[in-house]
Amino acid sequence: MVASSTNEAKSGEAASDTSADPGFESEDVGNAAYLNRHNTEMFESGRSFSGNERNKVWFNTEGLGHADLSDLSGADSANDGRAVLATDLDDDGDVDIFVHNLQRERHSLYRNDVGTAAGFIKLRLKATSSNAEAIGATVLVSAGSRDTAQVLSRGAGFLSCQAPELIFGLGGAEAGEVSVRWPSGELESFGSLASGTRAMLVEGSGEAQTMAARTTQLPNPLPRGFRVNLGDQLPALAVLDSKGEEAVIDLQELAEGEELYLNFWASYCASCIKELPDLQKLDEEDGRRVIALSMDAPTDLYAAQELFEQRGARFPSYFLGSKHTGESGPSTVQQIIDIERLPIPSTVVINSEGVIQRIISGPLRQP
Ligand SMILES: [Ca+2]
Ligand SMILES: [Ca+2]
Predict the structure, then answer these.
(1) CA angle at 312 for the pair 307 and 313, rounded to the nearest 5°
(2) Which residue segment(s) compose the domain that 177 sits in?
């Protein structure tokens, strides 16, 4: 899509009589230079070329159609995905998902925690009378009353390939009968393989070579909307103060040896506004301090601050909109959170050393 837009622009540019003035040409709406800069700005601002195409996860209910598990599975994302690799990355028997994105987080890894109680078989293939990777082979697994077939194909997704491994769920059966239709056309049986088997099937051998499991622990995800995690030290942040002036919050300094609650809120968030009096009471407790950081647009700063004060909140209040880029000096707020994903209210509890002890998504007091 991007390439074709640029080509169209180039042909339009050739017909334009503004080419006599290179300075003017570079500003001409629709020409290649304009589009390139437009595209760069799209990338830098984290916007999508493809509009709002959220990632989807569908579950085949076998009879009741496909259920949309996108949100429930946690794989829902507004990121602009370009390729999906579905394979068992931690070798525990269930299929995990790796997504390559065009922008924002370039790679996302979704660990499958559903479990493998229903059983599985993992197979790799080696052909001897055709391409050694056995691309194009069809593997059939009969388990219980179910027959499942998969074709080994490596190409899928933009600039990506699939893992050379097929994973079969057994639907609760203790074993599966395995046969392979090799690219040569030969059909070969490998007999019954027990649930949990990981095996290499070599064409012509008639016997599966079992392989030991090599399980590894995939990391836990960061708290939603955060780019920092428990145990991290929060950097000094460039913000605006409640009068709209540039300010830097050094959380360790502000904590003054006490426990610090950094509350992310906004004037458009009903539950945020509701808990402001509770946060004020918390700030008045011994050994605790509260700081508010509003997610409001800088243009709404004064209205948000007015609402903050109307709710009886008197603890320090800061806002987005600093001109600092985060390249040197204090960090930007965007370097510790993803504003588009952060659930608000969210509260980070920091100890007197400035280290994150807890991250609370939602109100402090759950309804
Ligand atoms: Ca897995
Ligand atoms: Ca798993």
Answers:
(1) 80
(2) 54-221
